[in-house]
Design brief:
alpha+beta, two-stranded antiparallel ribbon, 10 helices, about 35% helix
Length: about 325
């Protein structure tokens, strides 16, 4: 349910006239990213808002404790992905090639312990693999390999967007960057904190390696964010519309005052991230309100879920007309 925040961010971007040339997504960001790549309009945003609001009452994560326990014992995960597959088939295009905006998503290969980026062929299988949170949903088999949540290997795909030609990147996360990290009290909390350290460090390294001429905007979720490290109430629709609207307002306010030209100086709260910043500056301290971290938790295992929408390098560039796979 935390992915609803990205819907508000997408709405604010489109209202501000920011139509993407490229969308890259991981985990729940693959769902939202594929939807906006298919229809980058206000109409698509409203459909996404309805989808997230209705998810709690749908059969995607249906079943009481007894049924879920039986599924775990029999299969090793809480929910079948068949209802989610049907939902994606009803709302997404059949193939990557049908999307008017270039789109890619990432999943983690179990056999190779590495990332695989999907950019062509069947769309639903790729998105389903990207958001297959371990223990919550089963791995997705594609071409003889099994894939799980892309957040394990690429929690914030800024580097991928830049490699594909992006020069202005907007990072959409699910709302945990405002939460400070502290030592975990329980064993599972310690594991989640360890995952967060690795994830945030990976993002800091990616930001430190950005080339000159690239601007990255990490969009805000909004005040009052209460995203937990462990999302036990992952099926609850409570507050979804409020989360969407809060993120939309915060992002709209950010876009009104954010410069859009060359990269800026050291990051400040709700400011574009400078590619020239030191890794420690880019990552920042959650306790001091730095907006330079991105990604965030979704589901029950703290997997990161991010969509990055991007402006390309322009005509002839990797993401523009004449470039490989370019759409504009």
């Amino acid at each position: 349910m935390l992915g609803a925040a990205e819907v508000g961010m997408l709405g604010a971007l489109l209202e501000a006239g920011c139509r993407p040339d490229l969308v890259v997504g991981t985990s729940v960001g693959a769902i939202n990213g594929a939807a906006v790549a298919a229809d980058p309009t206000a109409g698509a945003i409203e459909k996404l808002a309805e989808l997230w609001s209705d998810l709690g009452s749908s059969d995607v994560f249906a079943g009481g404790p007894a049924k879920r326990l039986a599924t775990v014992v029999q299969h090793g995960y809480l929910h079948s992905n068949a209802p989610l597959r049907r939902m994606l088939q009803a709302h997404l295009a059949a193939t990557f090639e049908e999307l008017p905006v270039r789109f890619q998503c990432v999943a983690a290969s179990i056999e190779r312990a590495s990332a695989r980026w999907f950019a062509q062929g069947p769309l639903v299988d790729a998105v389903l693999a990207s958001c297959a949170v371990p223990a919550l949903l089963p791995p997705v088999k594609i071409g003889g390999e099994h894939y799980v949540d892309g957040g394990l290997v690429e929690s914030t795909p800024v580097g991928r967007a830049v490699a594909l030609g992006a020069r202005t990147v907007y990072v959409l996360h699910v709302g945990r960057i405002e939460r400070p990290l502290r030592p975990g009290r329980w064993p599972w909390e310690a594991g989640l904190v360890a995952f967060e350290i690795a994830r945030r460090r990976g993002f800091a390294d990616a930001m430190a390696a950005l080339p000159e001429g690239v601007t990255v905007h990490v969009l805000p979720v909004g005040d009052g964010n209460d995203t937990p490290l462990l999302g036990l109430r992952y099926r609850s629709p409570s507050g979804v519309r409020r989360r969407i609207e809060r993120a939309r307002q915060a992002t709209a306010e950010y876009l009104e005052r954010a410069p859009t030209g060359a990269p800026n100086g050291p990051p400040a709260p709700q400011s574009p991230v400078s590619p020239a910043a030191d890794a420690s500056e880019s990552n920042g301290s959650e306790s001091n309100g730095s907006r330079a971290d991105a990604g965030g938790a979704g589901g029950t295992t703290g997997r990161a879920s991010t969509t990055a929408t991007a402006r390309s390098a322009g005509p002839g560039g990797p993401g523009g007309p004449g470039g490989p796979g370019g759409t504009r």
